[in-house]
Design a protein that fits this description.
alpha+beta; Umud Fragment, subunit A; 2 domains; two-stranded antiparallel sheet; 6 helices
């Protein structure tokens, strides 16, 4: 097992820091750092200052157990789930991308961790959940599944699944772009794909991208 001195050298070299620079940043004298690294001094009183300056986990520096990199501090309220509104019945308003809903309510059956949403670039206020009502996207989406839709992710990428308002009707479909500018709206259950030609895309209003699904 490595010694405190060996771990101190390892962390200092990883950070590209000299003994003199570490002394300046930690407030621990350079001779003390040298003695700790060589094993001439075995004290641990200065370990907190050294760990802080090197941005390593204090327990790792002292004992060698655990991870060297400290865990990021959790933000206040990080563990509290955020609940996304459940919507039904898309209604296309005037202008592309403007969607209203026949019904909207908070769904307290499925919460999402704020950190999980942040890591995926999701803004809870720009997300909605929908209840899958048929097997058109089976096996990817099953009847009764809940799908999380990001209203901020509306740029179409072939092969991805989107919530679409097609003639005012809410549909979940896998979208494939065609060279002519048209779209194939694909049902995963192998039903014939619906083709929206370049002109027909005007009636396809992209609501958002499916970012998560769960039963």
């Amino acid at each position: 097992m490595s010694t405190l001195g060996e771990r101190l050298i390892q962390a200092r070299k990883l950070r590209g820091t000299s003994q003199a620079e570490l002394a300046r940043r930690s407030g621990v004298s350079q001779p003390t750092i040298s003695d700790l690294e060589s094993g001439a001094q075995a004290g641990t009183k200065k370990a907190p200052e050294l760990a802080s300056a090197l941005k390593v986990d204090l327990a790792w520096l002292l004992t060698g157990r655990g991870e060297m990199e400290p865990r990021p501090a959790r933000r206040e309220g990080e563990d509290r789930p955020v609940f996304v509104p459940l919507v039904r019945g898309a209604m296309v308003s005037a202008g592309a991308g403007r969607i209203g809903w026949e019904h909207e309510e908070l769904d307290y059956t499925q919460g999402f961790q704020r950190s999980w949403m942040r890591e995926r670039g999701l803004n809870p206020e720009r997300c909605r959940t929908v209840l899958v009502g048929d097997d058109s996207m089976s096996p990817y989406l099953q009847p009764g599944d809940l799908a999380l839709i990001s209203l901020a992710h509306r740029e179409l990428r072939s092969g991805e699944v989107y919530a679409l308002a097609v003639g005012g009707e809410l549909q979940l479909r896998r979208v494939n772009r065609r060279p002519d500018g048209g779209l194939d709206l694909v049902s995963d259950n192998r039903a014939p794909a619906e083709y929206a030609g370049a002109r027909g895309t005007e009636r396809v209003n992209v609501i958002g991208k499916v970012m998560w699904r769960g039963g």
